[in-house]
Amino acid sequence: MANIDIVTQEELAHGHDDHHDDDHHGDKFQSGFFSRYVFSMDHKTIAKQFLITGIIWAIIGAAMSIVFRLQLGFPEESIAWLKPILGKWIVVDDAGIGSLDQDFYYALVTMHGTILVFFVLTAGLSGTFSNLLIPLHIGARDMASPMLNMFSYWFFFLAGTIMFASLFLSTGPFAGGWTAYPPLSAVQSSMSGSGAGMTLWTVSLVLFVVSVLLGGMNYITTVINMRTKGMTMWRLPLPIWAFLVTAILGLLSFPVLASAFFLMIFDRSFGTSFYLSEIFINNAPLENVGGSPILYQHLFWFLGHPEVYIIILPAFGIVSEVLSVHSRKPIFGYKAMVMSILAIAVLAFIVWAHHMFMSGINPFIANIFVLFTLIIAVPSAVKVFNWIATLYGGNIRFNSANLFAIGFVSLFISGGLTGIFLGNSAIDIPLHDTYFVVAHFHIVMGVAAFFGMFAGIYHWFPRMYGRFMNETLGRLHFWGTMIGAYAIFWPMHYMGMAGVPRRYYNFTAFESFNQFAAMNQFITIAAIVVFALQIVFVINFFYSIFNGRKQKKMNPYGANTLEWTAPVNAGHGNWPGAIPHVHRWAYDYGKDGQEFIPQTVPLKPGEKDMGAH
Amino acid sequence: MGSLIIILSVFLLGVVLVQIGKVNELSSAIRGEQESEYSANTTHAVFGLLFMVGFLVLVFGSFFYYKNSMLGYGPLTSASKHGWDIDYIFNVTMVITVIVFVITHIALFVYAFQYRNRPGHVAKFIPHDNRLEIIWMVIPSIVMAILVVGGLNVWNNTMIDIAADAVPGKDFIEIEGNGQQFGWNLRYPGPDNRLGGTYFKKISSSNPLGQVWEDPKNHDDFQPSNIVLPKGMQVRVRITSRDVLHNFYLPHHKVKMDAVPGMPTHFVFTPTITTAEYREQLGELDSKGNPLYPEWHTPADPSDPENKLKRYEVFGFELACAELCGNGHFSMRKEVTIVTPEEYEKWLGEQTSYYEANIKGKEEDVKIGKTEVEAESENKLSLENAKDQSISNIN
Question: Is A187 an 8 Å CB contact of chain B?
Answer without folding.
Answer: yes
